[in-house]
Write a structure and sequence with these properties.
The chain has 649 residues and is an alpha+beta fold. The chain folds into three domains: 15-227, 2-Layer Sandwich (Heat Shock Protein 90), CATH 3.30.565.10; 233-400, Ribosomal Protein S5, domain 2 (2-Layer Sandwich), CATH 3.30.230; 419-548 and 609-644, Rossmann fold, CATH 3.40.50. It is 37% helix and 19% strand. The strands form four sheets. Strands 1, 2, 3, 4, 5, 6, 7, 8 and 9 form a nine-stranded mixed β-sheet that branches. A five-stranded mixed β-sheet has the order 10-11-14-12-13, with helices on both faces. The longest helix is centred in the middle third of the chain and has 34 residues, at 382-415. The radius of gyration is 28 Å and the shape is globular. The relative contact order is 0.08.
């Protein structure tokens, strides 16, 4: 096999993006599809950060395209040194844009000149219209290549270029309008944008940039949303805590740090509430850094330092051995937002999809701002400081009690060879990647599942009824609850401080409950437990919900199983005026082992829904609302959404 110069392939223009889209947008699934949407939205947000844009319009068009418009300065349209229009260079060349230098953008969210061009490369059609310097021009593209020249037009002709009659154009001296259709050759399974996902993207950015208005419209459903917040990240903290009971007013710091190698603008807002859970979000130039990074590290270090110093100074740790507070104590019930803004040509992310910030300057800047601000706040507001410390010390005492319980149940059991729960019918397979655990409601269904399963790789753990609501319980109570104790031991990965995902004994954990109200309640209780205490199982894609059939139809001596009322109506229409028998399953226990295997447990025929966290903030809000102490928000949610509930399979 030869290896010479002719074997070296050079990809021109935007070919690298189409050849390896995952390198630029992370994936080509639904997440990747919405990532390209994010890139275009963030280009508009970049105009709002320094105050050039006041409005962003987002329209989901009926033909599957999307239009994003801002009333900012408009993409430059003058001639670039390459001889092309600056607009064409920005849209068709990798690493070309105004975000490498420091003059055009002090902070930006785009992919450093890759964002718009990457979206262009992954779109079957894209049109960009710009008003700037008294001119209106447009250019069309197809899969990253220019299909027209940069063409000047006028306001009368402009309306004909727009994809949707609902949207006209901004009444401003300058604007940018970008319309694009995701390429089905790239996004083969996910071709349409999700209104809820786009709405969350817009709302999140509206929270971050105070006084920036978002206007979202869906042409197909006629839904529309408008977001505008005066308070910036303080409004976001207030929103995150809306279904919780805050313990003190929101604490807010904002400062520009210019004496580092790279200047960093820091905004931090925090507020403790009476819950047991932490909600901390971090952003860098409006990018949601879901995996944290240096800015979040700086926040946690400063919070830990100031709280411990204040507690020691005021002799609040005298009852604690070695005066130890751990990070979990400090973060129980904490809601916080950490937002840094940095020059776009200096910001560093761990990967192209920007989920983790790497700049060490961000850590120093956030640490400095939080340390200075929180020290002053505690000194000036002793009552609020006492409230916060009381919350933290209560968490520390609960942690010590929980550790004692865990030592008795988990650690001691592991050291002394505690056997697996007697209710568990384990599988023969010992490799986690080939093993699955069915968590089954009730002994009757558990019996059928044990008889019908493939014991080579399927384990069964029956539950004895409804479990503890873990949204309201600390870890020591959870450990003492027998059904949850059995589940924790069966899974094998521990819980709390001892959790180790590498020790998980099954890589498919399947919740299998009845399709009635009680079954749905048990499923929700289990989802709450996994989300709050064993989230790595969800993060790794190991948690599923089994979908048993609702009906069995016998027609011409053949059994047909259907999973919803809609599917039943559709099937009955095909056998209209013919004889058949119909059975409605009220519970899994009504099925014999063979039926349960063929409909719900056989990998060849079963339907499983994989559980994932598409929106962490929304998931957190829903669990608090449905499983928390506050009744009015739960009542409003149920009354509003009861008729909208569907079974999506």
């Amino acid at each position: 096999m030869t290896y010479t110069a002719k074997d070296i392939t050079v990809l021109e223009g935007l070919e690298p993006v189409r050849k390896r889209p995952g390198m630029y947008i992370g994936s080509t699934d639904e997440k990747g599809l919405h990532h390209i949407f994010t890139e275009i939205i963030d280009n508009s947000v970049d105009e709002a950060i320094p105050g050039f844009a006041k409005n962003i319009w987002v329209t989901l068009n009926q033909d599957g395209s999307a239009t994003v418009t801002d009333d900012g300065r408009g993409i430059p349209i003058d001639k670039h040194k390459s001889g092309l229009s600056a607009l064409e260079v920005s849209m068709t060349k990798l690493h070309a844009g105004g975000k490498f230098g420091s003059s055009a953008y002090q902070a930006s969210a785009g992919l450093h000149g890759v964002g718009a061009s990457a979206v262009n490369a992954l779109s079957s059609f894209m049109r960009v219209i710009v008003k700037r310097d008294g001119k209106i021009v447009y250019q069309d593209y197809e899969r990253g290549k220019a299909k027209t020249k940069v063409t000047e037009t006028n306001q009368i002709q402009l309306i004909k270029l727009l994809a949707d009659d609902h949207f006209k154009y901004p009444n401003s001296d300058s604007f940018t309008i970008s319309t694009f259709i995701p390429d089905t050759q790239i996004f083969k399974k996910h071709e349409s944008f999700n209104f809820t996902t786009v709405k969350n993207l817009c709302r999140e950015r509206a929270f971050l940039i105070a006084k920036l208005a978002f206007h979202l419209y869906d042409s197909a459903t006629k839904e529309e949303c408008h977001f505008y917040f005066d308070g910036g990240i303080k409004s976001l903290v207030r929103h995150l805590n809306k279904n919780k009971k805050p313990l003190h007013p929101i604490i807010y710091f904002s400062k520009q740090i210019d004496d580092l190698e790279i200047p960093v603008g820091v905004e931090v807002a925090l507020q403790y509430n009476d819950s047991f859970n932490e909600t901390v979000q971090s952003f860098a130039n409006v990018i949601n850094t879901g995996d944290g990074g240096t800015h979040l590290t700086g926040f946690k270090m400063a919070l830990s330092r100031i709280v411990k110093d204040y507690a020691e100074k005021n002799n609040l740790l005298k009852d604690f051995k070695n005066n130890i507070l751990v990070s979990d104590d400090l973060r129980e019930g904490l809601t916080a937002v950490v937002f840094v803004k940095m020059p776009s040509n200096n910001i560093q992310f761990e990967s192209q999809t920007k989920t983790k910030l790497n700049n060490p300057e961000a850590q120093s800047a956030v640490f400095s701002v939080v340390k200075e601000g929180l020290t002053a706040y505690f000194e000036e507001h002793p009552n609020e400081a006492k409230t916060i410390l009381d919350k933290i010390l209560l968490a520390a005492r609960a942690r010590l009690a929980a550790r004692a319980a865990k030592d008795a149940v988990i650690r001691k059991g592991a050291l002394e060879g505690m056997t697996l729960p007697g209710t568990l019918a384990d599988c023969q397979e010992k490799r986690p990647q080939n093993s699955e655990l069915y968590i089954v409601e009730g002994p009757s269904a558990g019996g059928s599942a044990k008889q019908g399963r493939d014991r080579k790789f399927q384990a069964i753990l029956p539950l004895g009824g409804k479990i503890l609501n873990t949204e309201k319980a600390r870890l020591d109570k959870i450990i003492q609850f027998q059904e949850l104790k059995n589940l924790i031991i069966a899974l094998g990965m521990g819980i709390g401080e001892t959790i180790d995902p590498n020790k998980l004994r099954y890589h498919r954990v399947i919740i299998m409950c009845d399709a009635d109200v009680d079954g749905e309640h048990i499923t929700t209780l289990l989802l709450t437990f996994f989300y709050r205490h064993l989230q790595p199982i969800i993060d790794h894609g190991f948690l599923y919900i089994a979908l048993p059939p609702l009906y069995k139809i016998n027609h011409n001596k053949i059994d047909k199983y259907v999973y919803s009322d809609a599917e039943l109506a559709e099937y009955l229409e095909t056998i209209k005026n013919q004889k058949y028998t119909l059975q409605r399953y009220k519970g899994l226990g009504e099925m014999n082992p063979e039926q349960l295997w063929s409909t719900t447990m056989n990998p060849e025929t079963r339907i499983l829904k994989q559980v994932n966290i598409a929106d962490a903030v929304q998931a957190n809000e829903v669990f608090i609302m449905l499983m928390g102490d506050e009744v009015p928000p739960r009542k409003r949610f149920i009354q509003t959404h009861a008729k909208m509930a569907t079974l999506d399979i």
